[in-house]
Design a protein that fits this description.
2 strands, mainly alpha, 118 residues, single chain
């Protein structure tokens, strides 16, 4: 992920594979499937409270995490903030400061959100 010539697709693929591995998945597992299975096992068990932080991230959150890590690694390795445009790699400019983008997608679907807020 430290290659300055890496495409966004390369970074996304490596980042998602890393998240799958971190959460104990096999090489061919999908992050969204792992998240759903984790949710279902917690709902079915009902013996423990559901802690959203224990679920694997959404695939879009993993994408932005991979972008952020890639951009930071390239900058740190090169010791040069100008080596890669942060706004193309998971950051946006707010009031003259860079803020990380966590995701471009809600982590809870609207029907589940309604159940959680009732």
């Amino acid at each position: 992920m430290e290659n300055t010539d890496a495409t966004s697709e390369d970074v996304v693929e490596a980042g998602i594979q890393l998240m799958v591995a971190v959460y104990g998945g096999a090489k061919d597992d999908k992050l969204s499937t792992m998240r759903y299975q984790s949710y279902c096992s917690k709902v079915c068990a009902l013996l423990t409270s559901m802690i959203p932080e224990q679920f694997p991230p959404t695939e879009r959150a993993a994408v932005y995490h991979a972008f952020l890590v890639h951009q930071q690694t390239v900058v740190w390795k090169a010791l040069d903030n100008r080596s890669i445009d942060p706004c193309k790699w998971g950051w946006h400019l707010v009031n003259g400061r860079l803020d990380p983008i966590a995701s471009d997608q809600c982590s809870v679907c609207s029907s589940d959100y309604y159940l959680l807020t009732e």
